[in-house]
């Protein structure tokens, strides 16, 4: 077992990799009553093609999310009920690159930890339960298809990405979900829920040796587990966009627009994180609620308080999204592009602005370290991406104005811009009348 001490922020992490390959992290928060745990498989919605021991497999889209749903259902009932009886709050989620199962509790920690590990490690699927779940998830997919914000987002993503499965909803499609069988589920569980492909992270006040001893005993009881040679297969994706402009019509009252700037992926974990932080600083200086540009756009009625922007940095893709409700989407688009051109032509980003940004972000970061939920989820995210949550302050301090200019100007390139406008159905009738 390894002990990592972060003296500057008074944090302590204990880490071990067990004989079966499972990585375990215990983050000690002395005096905390609540304990929070995540048990995560490095398996997400994009893992629909893979190679295991030199044999290639293709599975239906949405299977990672489907599997997440089914892991709570066992032969003797719903595990959610068991967590509730044990005084714990449990949940799970699937993203593009991982599936996490989690719980928080102030009582019966070992009972709930054992329940979590057994639930994740022991699948139970039958043809009847799979068929029933197909109906449930397809109903969920249909519901999302009627959601304007959902449709606007995925239409924008589909305009940007040609081959990468990021353009497919994490839940899959009605067609793909209907193809899933219990054999698919068992295959993906065997491959991606292998202990060497998982990480267990616990945050709270623990007896270190006792907790690690409990986990080792549980994992040893599973017996020998053969190692697997697994390789994920993803298609090549260029930076070129698929479709620059698109109009979407739905039963809505107001027009909404989303812009997407597609970027190149970065292989280096540290450079990925540097770009992510630099983009966060740069976008906030340009369009944050304290910026002059934001106030001008708001006062001129080009945006309203629904205006939002985000930089998404993942291992296999990166992009910037901007959205607002507006009566004049063309004016919004041209205004955003004009602001970008203006900033490129002047010394907009300054050390003074950056110092203020860093102070605010570091303050929020340090406050967040009081939350076991934040620590467990973010430590998981950064660890799987090849970085360390507790080294963020050092990286934040290293960001320079030149970093911001470099990444902002490259990312907000109009050559890789897509525009998606969601309009009321009545406008379509008027156009085609």
TrEMBL record:
Gene3D superfamilies: Metalloenzyme, LuxS/M16 peptidase-like. One of its GO terms (molecular function) is metal ion binding. Residues 61-173 form the Peptidase M16 N-terminal domain. Residues 180-359 form the Peptidase M16 C-terminal domain. InterPro entries: Metalloenz_LuxS/M16 (IPR011249), MPP/UQCRC_Complex (IPR050361), Pept_M16_N (IPR011765), Peptidase_M16_C (IPR007863). Coiled coil: none annotated. Pfam families: Peptidase_M16 (PF00675), Peptidase_M16_C (PF05193). This is Predicted Zn-dependent peptidase. It comes from Lacicoccus alkaliphilus DSM 16010.
């Amino acid at each position: 077992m390894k002990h990592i001490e972060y003296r500057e922020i008074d944090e302590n992490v204990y880490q071990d990799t067990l004989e079966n390959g499972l990585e375990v992290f215990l983050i000690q928060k002395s005096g905390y009553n609540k304990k929070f745990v995540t048990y995560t498989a490095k398996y997400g919605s994009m893992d629909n093609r893979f190679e295991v021991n030199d044999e290639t497999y293709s599975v239906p889209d949405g299977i990672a999310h489907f599997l997440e749903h089914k892991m709570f259902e066992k032969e003797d009932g719903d595990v959610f009920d068991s967590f509730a009886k044990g005084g714990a709050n449990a949940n799970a989620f699937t993203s593009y690159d991982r599936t996490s199962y989690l719980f928080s509790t102030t009582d019966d920690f070992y009972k709930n930890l054992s329940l979590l590990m057994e639930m994740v490690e022991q699948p139970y699927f039958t043809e009847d339960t799979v068929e029933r779940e197909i109906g449930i998830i397809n109903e969920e997919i249909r519901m999302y298809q009627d959601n304007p914000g959902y449709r606007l987002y995925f239409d924008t993503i589909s305009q940007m990405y040609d081959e990468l499965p990021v353009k497919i909803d994490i839940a899959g499609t009605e067609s793909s979900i209907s193809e899933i069988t219990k054999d698919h589920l068992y295959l993906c569980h065997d491959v991606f829920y292998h202990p060497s492909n998982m990480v267990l992270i616990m945050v709270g006040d623990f007896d270190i040796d006792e907790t690690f001893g409990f986990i080792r005993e549980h994992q040893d009881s599973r017996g020998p587990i053969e190692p697997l040679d697994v390789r994920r297969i993803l298609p090549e994706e260029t930076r070129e966009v698929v479709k620059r402009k698109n109009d979407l019509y739905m039963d809505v009252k107001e027009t909404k627009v989303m812009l997407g700037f597609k970027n190149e992926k970065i292989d280096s974990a540290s450079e990925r994180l540097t770009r992510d932080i630099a983009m966060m600083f740069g976008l906030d200086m340009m369009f944050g609620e304290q910026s002059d540009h934001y106030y001008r756009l708001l006062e001129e009625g080009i945006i309203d308080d629904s205006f939002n922007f985000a930089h998404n940095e993942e291992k296999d893709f990166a992009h910037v999204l901007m959205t607002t409700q507006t009566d004049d989407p063309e004016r919004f688009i041209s205004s955003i592009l004009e602001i970008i051109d203006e900033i490129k032509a002047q010394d907009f980003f300054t050390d003074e602005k950056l110092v203020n940004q860093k102070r605010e972000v570091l303050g929020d970061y340090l406050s967040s370290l009081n939350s076991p939920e934040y620590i467990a989820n973010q430590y998981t995210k950064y660890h799987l991406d090849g970085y360390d949550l507790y080294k963020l302050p050092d990286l934040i301090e290293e960001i320079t104005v030149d970093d911001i200019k470099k990444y902002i100007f490259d990312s907000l390139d109009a050559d890789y811009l897509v525009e998606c406008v969601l309009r009321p159905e009545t406008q379509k009738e008027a156009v085609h009348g």
